[in-house]
Amino acid sequence: MKKIIIINGPNLNLLGVRETSIYGDVSFDNYFKELKEFYKTIELDYYQSNIEGEIINKIQEVGFSYDGIVLNAAAYTHTSVGIADAISAIQSPVIEVHISNIYSREKIRHTSLISKNVKGVICGFGLNSYNLALNALV
Ligand code: DQA
After folding, report:
1. What is the CATH number of the domain that holds 70?
2. How close is the Cα of 118 to the center of ligand 1, in Å?
3. Phi, psi of 108 (to 5 degrees)
4. Which of the residues 26, 35, 92, 110 has the least number of beta carbons within 10 Å of its own beta carbon?
5. Which distant-in-sequence residues (6+ apart) come within 8 Å of 81 by Cβ?
C-alpha cells in the first residue's frame, strides 16, 4: 500500500472559518474524511502545524519512507528557505498545493521559494487542489 501524507502549514487549521470567500467554508478535517473515503487503496496521513520548524521536522521524518508528500506550506511558501532546503534533502516526491490561485493575488504571494524543489505545483482549484495532487501521486 502506498503511503502518502498531506502536510498543511500555518493558519490552515482554520479552514472553514478563515476568509471563507477565498478558502471556502469546509473544514479540512471534514474534507480529509472525504479524501480517506475516496483513496481507500492508499495509506493517507495528515499533519498540520503553524510552526516552521515542526513542518521541517515532519518533512524529514517522512521524507525517506513515504511515497509522496502533498504540501501546502501556506504563508511559509513565500518565505521559508528552511522548508525549501528540507524538500531538497529528502527522497519522497513533494507536490506543492495551494487552495487559492496565488498568482491572481497580492504580489508577495507570486513568489514561491519551494516550487523549484518540488515535483509539481497545483493551485487555484479550492480544496480540490489536494485531490488533484493525490491523483498525480497515485
Ligand atoms: C495558500 C496561499 C498562501 O499565500 C497563504 O498564505 C495561505 C494559503 C493557499 O492554499 O491558497 O495561507 O497556501
Report:
1. 3.40.50.9100
2. 17
3. -60, -25
4. 110
5. 113
Least confident residue range of 9-13, 17-21, 51-55: 17-21
Number of domains the chain is built from? 1
Closest by CA to 74, choosing from 7, 17, 119, 29, is 7
83: containing domain: 2-137
Please tell me the chain's helix, strand, coil percentages from 3-state DSSP, rounded to the nearest 5: 45, 20, 35
User: What is the full DSSP assignment across 122-133?
Assistant: EESSTTHHHHHH
Active site residue 98: yes
Query: Is 23 designated active site?
Result: yes
Note the pTM of the prediction, 2 decimals.
0.97
Protein residue with least CA distance to atom 13, ligand 1: 74
